[in-house]
């Protein structure tokens, strides 16, 4: 079970940051109306609001380098809590920016 959770968490992280770096508007498909994103202390709720925030970031191009992925089952049935740390490479910048992100991922079968 633990190995499956780690595999799903890694697959989600790979997919999320691939979209963030290469096709940011598509990130909206990973959120739901009840989703909430806290970005640098600002709480944003809903698919359209989260998509607007992510698409309005003042970084057009970037590359995430993932250092760690920690995944564990959440109290939400079928959910996985994923904590990611890594670095963000911006064009023309010599130094990497460090970041961390904590998400709850859940497959929704309809």
TrEMBL record:
Domain of life: Eukaryota
PROSITE patterns: NTF2_DOMAIN (PS50177)
Sorted UniProt keywords: Cytoplasm, Nucleus, Protein transport, Transport
Record's subcellular location: Cytoplasm; Nucleus; Nucleus envelope
Gene3D superfamilies: 3.10.450.50
CDD domains cross-referenced by the UniProt entry: NTF2
Entry keyword Cell membrane: no
GO CC terms, sorted: cytoplasm; nuclear envelope
Keyword Protein biosynthesis part of the UniProt annotation: no
Pfam families: NTF2
Residue intervals of the NTF2 domain: 8-110
PANTHER family recorded: NUCLEAR TRANSPORT FACTOR 2
Functional summary from the UniProt entry: Facilitates protein transport into the nucleus. Interacts with various nucleoporins and with Ran-GDP. Could be part of a multicomponent system of cytosolic factors that assemble at the pore complex during nuclear import.
Assembly and binders: Interacts with RAN1.
Name used for this protein in its record: Nuclear transport factor 2
Organism: Corchorus olitorius
């Amino acid at each position: 079970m633990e190995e499956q959770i780690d595999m799903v968490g890694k697959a989600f992280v790979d997919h999320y940051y691939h979209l963030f770096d290469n096709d940011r508007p598509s990130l909206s498909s990973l959120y739901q109306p009840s989703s909430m994103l806290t970005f640098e202390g600002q709480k944003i709720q809903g698919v359209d609001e989260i998509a607007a925030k992510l698409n309005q970031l003042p970084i057009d191009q970037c590359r995430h380098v993932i250092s760690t992925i920690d995944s564990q089952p959440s109290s939400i049935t079928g959910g996985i809590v994923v904590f990611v740390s890594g670095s963000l490479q911006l064009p023309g910048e010599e130094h990497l920016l460090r970041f961390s992100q904590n998400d709850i991922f859940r497959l929704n079968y309809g």
